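User: I'm writing a short methods note and want a consistent example. For Phosphodiesterase, I'll paste the sequence; you return only the structure tokens, no commentary, since I'll be parsing the reply automatically.
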Amino acid sequence: MECGQRCWFQTFLPKQVLLVFAKEDNQSNGFCWACEKAGYRCSIARTPESALECFLDKHHEIIIIDHRNSRYFDAETLCRSIRTTKPSENTVIIGVVRRHADREESSLLPFLSAGFTRRYVENSNIMACYNELIQLEFGEVQAQFKLRACNSIFTALEKSQEATEITSEDHVIQYVNPAFEAVMGYQKGELIGKELTEAERICERVQAESQTDIQTCRHKDKRKGSLDVRSTTSRGSDGSSQRRHSSMARIHSMTIEAPITKVINIINAAQESSPMPVAEALDRVLEILRTTELYSPQLGTKDEDPHTNDLVGGLMTDGLRRLSGNEYLLSAKQTHQVPGSLISPISLNDIPPRIAQAMENEQDWDFNIFELEAATHKRPLVYLGLKLFARFRICEFLGCSESTLRSWLQQTLDPIDEVAALIAATVHDVDHPGRTNSFLCNAGSELAILYNDTAVLESHHAALAFQITTRDDKCNIFKNMERNEYRTLRQAIIDMVLATEMTKHFEHVNKFVNSINKPLAALEENGNRILIKRMLIKCADVSNPCRSLEQCIEWAGRISEEYFAQTDDEKRQGLPVVMPVFDRNTCSIPKSQISFIDYFIMDMFDAWDAFADLPNLMQHLDNNFKYWKGLDDKKLRTLRAPPE
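Assistant:
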């Protein structure tokens, strides 16, 4: 009962309070002085890292986190991090929020779901802070102490070799410990909820069958009709131990064992011989490993940055809710008129001089795709595709003629698709409707139904590309390949196209960082090559912020217009508006670009630069970020500053 004694003794010690404020202000000072007035021990942390370290060292009863501004740290993410630790089970966590008299009251559910116990509306008055602390001490903190004491008692009972059961005043069994289970030969679930007399009959039957000496006696205290059972031998605990070791042996002897199972078994084995602090830390590791999304961070709401919030909601979810009676149908594929003077080339030698000139520096990062788009009347990919595929000798690998490749490029491509050198990049946006996955799911579109609201557009791009390629022999670039080679190539193309889906963005980036960007990484291994290819197409897919400034501005305008059109469509159809900030009348394009670069681009390209060494891309990224930041600092919402 040492743990229980410690909990009882702690109720008489001064309470410990941890204040997590990025910088000193009236509110943090108010709580600091209130702690001194109440006789509490007060610690102050300025960063999430120091807060977590301080808490794990001192185990504070109360933590107060500044939730008013996400510029310095994400309060909800910090709260979740603290809640994953074992000592936080009985800690009271308070979030300080802003006072908004003119704003409608919002739901507290996301706040509580993050792990906060309650909120405190900012008030730096010392007495207000003092009263809050006193209410916490005699309310939530005291309740947590009682709960901790109960848990300590049950922990002791679970480890006790004395068979023990607890009943209600109506003689119904409420609890039995493992030793009781071992003696009775029944599982806890078979005993809890049954009346005591029934348990006594079970006990008598076990006595007769096992001839084990069991002493049964009635309590002489105030509790009515309670039964204590104590084994006079150690056979009960031995039996329990044997069952436990037998179960673990079955896990260890599995013929087909998943890697995660091996990891968990190794950690379990290490725990048995580890001191308590290490064992508790390994418990936390096991909790994390048992989650389903090991590489995807928990995304908290960023109330202070609606642009980031909307980008996360619009790009990383497959629809917020479903509405009956609304259906979005992909419009028939529009046919674009190509001037008669612009005839598709038979080979590279037939490309018109003005187009050839526009493609002279196609291998350079600063190649201007918009000039080629104008020269080809919005059909740049056929020409650029032929040149790039020739440079990489794609026809030779596939065993197809250049005319077949040209036919495939002509059949597959749509004006909304953008250029890339390899097949996956060529088709990764084919037949894109200019709407996000969230829009299609909310609208109940045919594609969303077909692909079960999961990676809707990416699945459509990959599937349609192969449908178009294989249905017409004259443009089937795969027809001369051996079956095994084709299957391998097809799987690689599909995997890369699906990697562009944004819901898996952080998973792909984190796997790349953990597997590739480390010393002695085996780059030739198939698994690592897959990660590199995924990262390659992801970086290419969203590389606009790494282009030269003029191209970056042009792309920002185009994607913003696409999101504006989606918002207009959502309002017109009565659908949920998944990215409200992208309203053409109010949106700040610089803010949206800053949020996108901060949240999605910066870390990914830092990792890719560490692998591929691309200083010119990173310089463009830095310049473009400064450009958008400069416009935002001037309170401008447009692509460019007005002429002076």
